[in-house]
Amino acid sequence: NDNMSVRNFHTVRCSANNENVARTAQTFQDLAVQAKVQTNLRVCRSTHASMGLVNSHQVAKGDVLMRVPTTAAFVLDYDSGLRLPASARWPRLRGSAAGSSEPLPWDILQALALVDGLAGDGGEFWHRYCDELLPTPEQLTLPMCWGEARLAQLQHADIAQAAAAQQARLTALFPELMEPLAPDVPSWLQWAFACVRSRAFRVGADAFAFIPFLDFANHADGPTNDQRPPTVNGTPCRPTANADFCMTPTTSNDDERGEGGGSFFELVALRDITPGEEVTICYSGPEGYTNQRYMAQYGFVPRGGNPADRIRLELDAEHQAAPLELARLQDLMGDALFLAALRGTDPYVFAALKSMPLKDDDPRVMDASSIHRPTAARENDASVRTAMSLLHQVEAQIAEGTTPLEDDEVMLAGPAGEQLLFEDPRLAAAVAYRIERKRLLGTAAALLRAYARGNAR
């Protein structure tokens, strides 16, 4: 029965305790051999209290860390179509694609493939991969997998509303697959869709792939153009990605890999990597994503500030005609803090400034040689009225918070925070999201108040 329920299928909990890490690592190795994957990477607990890929020997820049045959992946190319292992039935995927009056998007098709895989209708390999290596539904930290009570924990109406809209979209398409598995547990379609959205790769202009084994690579900031991350006293602010993936062209090598020939998805080292170092990729590209996008698509936010984050501010014609003066902000902040923001060592200030309408140079290209001299605040200055209007908007967003920032920070600090990550990863993700949002909003509010009052620090 192609419409059989999958709600009773067992999934192995992938929490990162020692027993589960060992079991997952062994399954990863066994399935990699079965899929003819070439790699020396192994699975172990990562710094994010999840699981990741760890290097086991010295690697030089340019070395291939993992090579996955393209025939082992789900690949949807809008030019050439959908490629799946031909030996399985894939009834939900094939039936839905054939029966839909409108072409289904790539993420829905691949989600249906994962549901088929979990149900055992995609072959033994995909049944084990979905059942034993992918996270369980109740562990997914993407908001589109959460009910109303959990969405409220984000303390941000915009992201909660977007998650509810995504759930409504899936329900309209496949109501029979959207039945919750249990109270506070998402449906199998939510599970599959979240896995696709957080783990799939873009492999061409209009091509997307769910690549097993590569999907274990965790995120780190993108390397800068000169491969040197921002530093404080010579120490990197946080790690940057040390690997990237690519697709090799098909070769004439015919070794029973099927229609994919000798083509592979490869994970390649961007720099030398030492034994025991986690192998990471950048999910967002060098420009980064906002925290709302990170949370919605991947279920986490960068901790300690995100220069690419932004505050949503409504700018009418009056605000656009009277932007804030960057030179005055510099005077209010002081040269040291101002330059720290420009260099990326204070990402909250940088993100706050980039959220505001600014008159003068772009903060991303300014340096010490272009520091402006103080400018006196003028009474009834139009830009002061802009600052006041923006401040009201920021304060309204701060008011969405129902818990103090200090209490949130305590929840994730020290051993108690580590325990929360294991016991309730969804709550931990929500608290991390609202901590970062409150810090950014608080920074913006402080800058706008100072600007409106004309009080230099």
From TrEMBL:
Gene3D superfamilies attached to this UniProt entry: set domain protein methyltransferase, domain 1
Protein origin, superkingdom: Eukaryota
Domain annotation SET: ranges: 39-284
GO molecular function, one term: protein-lysine N-methyltransferase activity
InterPro entries referenced in this protein's UniProt entry, alphabetically: SET_dom (IPR001214), SET_dom_sf (IPR046341), SETD3_SETD6_MTase (IPR050600)
Protein name: SET domain-containing protein
Species for this entry: Volvox reticuliferus
